[in-house]
Amino acid sequence: VPSQSGDASAPPELAPLRRLREHTAPLYACAIGGGLIATGGDDNTVRLWPAGTEAERVYWLALTDVAVALGRIGLQRYSAAFDAAGYLDLESLQRMDASQRAEVAKATGMKHGHARKF
């Protein structure tokens, strides 16, 4: 959810709405429709969530994209850390060079071997 900052020209800061603790394995799917968000995970479950506002839907999709990408490389345990640090733009993460990825790994508390994988 966008939070208010003092500078009207600054991009909105995102604050977590909720964590997907109900899933016990990486997420691989997200769909929005009919006032609901459906998430599917490797825990063989599909979960339904209220969709909320447009800002909430944008947040959910961004969070899910990053969580799914991390899950594909076995690093889903860092999804909450990426969320908390504001790394919700998958395209930006994918465009980073090695030194930028190393900074993200440090900021999200990745172990050395996991950081190399990232």
TrEMBL record:
Top-rank lineage group of the source organism: Eukaryota
Gene3D superfamilies assigned: YVTN repeat-like/Quinoprotein amine dehydrogenase
SUPFAM superfamilies: SAM/Pointed domain, WD40 repeat-like
Keyword Magnesium found: no
Sequence ranges of the WD repeats: 20-49
Keyword terms: WD repeat
Signal peptide: none
Protein name: SAM domain-containing protein
